[in-house]
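Entry 14. Structure prediction run on the chain below.
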Amino acid sequence: MSLNNSQKVGAYRWTVVALLFFATTINYIDRQVLGMLKPVIADEIHLSEAAYGYIVSAFQAAYAIGLLVVGRLIDRFGTRLSYAVAIALWSIAGCFHAAARGAVGFGLARFFLGLGESANFPAAIKATAEWFPKKERALATGIFNSGSNIGAVVAPIIVTFLTVTYGWQIAFIVTGALGFIWMVAWLLVYRLPRQSKRLTAAELAYIEQDDTQADTQAVEEKVDWRALLTQRATIGITLSRFVCDWVWWFFLFWTPDFMEKSYGVNIQQMVLPLIVIYTFSSFGGIFGGYLSSKLIRVGRSVAFSRKAALLTCALLVVPVILIPEVNSLWASIAIISLACFAHQGWASNIYTLVSDYYPKNRVATMTSLAGFTGSIGGVLAASAVGNVLELTGSYFVVFMMAGLAYLVAWGCLQLFLPKKTLE
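Output returned:
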C-alpha cells in the first residue's frame, strides 16, 4: 500500500501491531530471566542441575497444556479480555519468582508463567486477523513476532543491570511488572474494529475487505473438533509445525554450547555473537511478511504468495548443514544468523496461514492446536538432540536435520494445504 493510500485509508491498525509487538517482547523477557540468573540462584539456594531441569520442564509442560485450552477460551471470551487476563497471570508468576526459595517454589512460578505465556501467540494472531486484511497480515505478524528477538536482546542488559545493582529478586519483580503497564495500555486502546471510536470508516472498510459470509455465520458456532482435526489444512499446518518448530529452540538453547565446544568461546565472549544473531533474526519476520504481502499486492494468489515466501525461508536455512565444516567462529555466526532470520520469516507466514484458512472465531483455537503440536515436536527433538550429541560427540547430524527440516515442513504444506481455497 502506498503512502498516499495509507493516508487516505488511515493507519490506526498499526497501533494494535505496536501493542502486540511490546507484549511479545515482554513475553520473551519474562521467560528468559531465570535462565540468565540460574548460576547466581543455584549458588545461593544450592539448586541442583536435576532440580533445575524439573523447573524448566514445569514451564514447558504448562506451555503445552495451556495451548490445548487457551485458543478456545480466546475464541469464546474475545481477544481483549483474554489477552489482558493472560498477561496478568504471567506477570504475577514472573514477580512470584522473587519469593521462591527452592525448587518447588520456582517450579510453581514457572508453571504458571508457562500457562499465561501460552496465550500470547494465539491472542496476537487472532488480533491480527481481526484488524488486518489478508494482504497485510503476514507483515503485521512479522512485525509483532520480531518482539521475541528484541526481548532476547534486551533481557540480558536489563537483568544484568538490575541483578548487579539491586539483587536477583528485583530483576524478577521489575521484569514481571512490565506486563501490568502493557495491560493498562491494552485495555484502554483495544476494541474490535467496529467498536473502535478511533477508526475511520475508510479504514474499517479496508480492514473488512476480505470478510466472507462464513466469517459472519461462524461467530456463534461452537468448534467442531472432528471437522477441525480432519481438515487438510489442519493436517498440513500441524505437521509442518511438528517437523520444524524445534529448530528455533535448538538455536536458542544449544548455540552457546556449540560455540564453547567448537571455538572455545567463554561466557563473556558469547554476548556479542548472541546479540548479533538475535538482532539479525528480528528483521526476518518483517522480511517474510513483506515478501508474501508484496506478492499478493502484485496480483499473485494468497496461497501462492504464502508458499513462495515459506519456500524462500526454507532454502535460507539449508546452509546450516555446512557449519560443522566451518573453521571460523564468525562465519558460523553468520550462517546461524541467516537461519534464525529465515525462521522468523517462516514464522510470520506459518502463523498467518491460520488466519487465511479459518474463520476469525477459529483462529485462536487453531493457532493453539498448531502450537501444541510444535511443542510436542520440540520436546521429542530436544531429547533426540541430546542423545545424538552424547552418542556421536558431533553436531554434524543435528545441523543436517536442522538444515532440511523446513524443506520437509514445506513439503507437508504443499501436500496437504488445499490449493483452491485461497486463490
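DSSP finds 18 helices and no strands in the chain.
Filed with the rest of this week's runs.
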